[in-house]
Amino acid sequence: MAGQREAHELLLIEEADAWFEYLEATRGQSVLRYKEVEPWAWARLTQRLRAIKTRRAKLRPAAEAA
Prior knowledge:
Blueprint: H1 2-26, H2 31-65
Helix pairs in contact: 1-2
């Protein structure tokens, strides 16, 4: 059970890191640069969140089986 909790906490940290990466990429940009960077940053964030969601879904069946 402790391993499941640790894995869940690591996924939460990774999710927060994904959001911070997005904010770091978009914050303080000029309007023109923001328009260039934001679609990339949003796509990267979405990709990372999707991967985290998939891994989190794999944790649930393992937790229920335990």
